[in-house]
From TrEMBL:
The keyword S-adenosyl-L-methionine does not apply. Keywords: ATP-binding, Nucleotide-binding. InterPro entries: P-loop_NTPase (IPR027417), ParA/MinD_ATPase (IPR050625), YlxH/NBP35 (IPR033756). The keyword Nucleotide-binding applies. Pfam families: ParA. PANTHER family: CELLULOSE BIOSYNTHESIS PROTEIN BCSQ-RELATED (PTHR43384:SF4), SEPTUM SITE-DETERMINING PROTEIN MIND HOMOLOG, CHLOROPLASTIC-RELATED (PTHR43384). This is MinD/ParA family protein.
Length: 307
């Protein structure tokens, strides 16, 4: 069973795909079996970053049932340490309007892929597809850029993700779920209050769903005059969303990233000594440790197994 890591941010162009392809590559280089899934519906472009202009298959083939088994869509990149790539779907109506059943089928198939780590790149914005793919993971990574507009988009994205997570505490089809699903909320407190009013004890269920939601933060495009006020952001997120935001690291603004993209390679392969590549290497090492901790928690001890 693989561990699923998603990458999201809310705002477009913050570097989700750049970070995703580099982390996937670095984790694969460290010997893990990694699959990178491009779930940016409509804006899928990760395959281009690897110079794969004519992928044999894409997620569209799975969504429209041309293939039944998701593993048939996977392309293995031998030159990138055997990284497996799940090429995203183009802007087809079928994928953009993916219905609940199609999405559930895709999510089920993703969890069944044969790899150690499944890394999911989500699209820009905070629509339900983005939020659902983001929240389906075991570990979430958020990318924030230092400019003010990016921080506000980031906060809003995290707020919506948090509310969606809280709502997931209720069984679909239950009365609370049915009423909450059709409402829009500005704050988590509103979700908790309405849930409790509908069904005493529901607030606790929503809070429990939130217990393991601790998205990891990566700050991208950091420069001498562009630093993220992490303290401020953390206080905001913890006070208003009740979410702790551990820091995974910073990636500097670096022209080597654009140069690498022109050569259709992740910067960690193209220029391993570049400042951004070094920063991404540190982040990948930290992420590897988080994955190991998660796995150690998830795997029942031998004692538990034999009890
Ligand atoms: N640290 C960086 N230094 C310099 N350029 C960067 C850096 N990170 C990303 N970029 C550039 O920013 C642009 C957007 O990056 P990327 O496509 O990874 O963002 P994205 O969040 O995936 O965008 P979208 O929301 O459209 O999917 C790219 O041209 C990329 O080369
Ligand atoms: Mg992208």
């Amino acid at each position: 069973m693989s561990i699923i890591i998603s990458i999201g941010s809310g705002k477009g162009g913050t570097g989700k795909s750049t970070v995703a392809s580099n982390l996937a590559c670095l984790l694969a280089r460290s010997g893990r079996r990694v699959c990178l899934a491009d779930l940016d519906l409509g804006g899928a472009d990760i395959h281009i970053q690897f110079g794969l202009f004519e992928p044999p298959r894409t997620l569209t083939d799975f969504v429209n049932r041309s293939v039944d088994d998701l593993s048939e869509v996977v392309v293995t990149l031998d030159a990138i340490h055997g990284l497996q790539l799940l090429v995203g779907t183009g802007d087809t109506l079928q994928s953009a309007n993916m219905n609940f059943q199609q999405k559930q089928r895709l999510l089920r198939a993703l969890t069944g892929l044969d790899c150690d780590i499944l890394l999911i790149d989500t699209g820009a914005g905070a629509n339900y597809h983005v939020l659902d793919f983001f929240m389906a993971a075991d570990i979430q990574i958020c990318i924030a850029c230092p400019e003010t507009t990016a921080i506000m988009d980031f906060y809003r994205f995290l707020q919506l993700a948090t509310i969606r997570k809280a709502l997931s505490g209720f069984l679909s089809g239950s009365e609370v779920s049915n009423v909450l699903r059709d409402r829009s909320f500005q704050t988590l407190a509103e979700v908790f209050a309405l849930a409790e009013a509908l069904q005493p004890g529901a607030k606790q269920a929503a809070q429990q769903a939130m217990e393991f939601f601790n998205p990891l933060l990566i700050t991208n495009r950091v420069g001498p005059n562009a630093r993220l006020n992490q303290m401020k952001l953390r206080t905001l997120v913890s006070r208003y969303l009740g979410v702790f935001l551990p820091d995974l690291g910073e990636v500097p603004e670096d022209p080597a990233i654009t140069q690498a993209q022109r050569s259709y390679l992740p910067v960690c392969e193209y220029a391993p000594q570049a400042a951004s590549a070094q920063a991404l290497k540190t982040i990948a090492r930290r992420l590897g440790k988080v994955v190991d901790l998660y796995l150690a928690k998830r795997t029942p001890s031998l004692q538990e197994k034999t009890a």
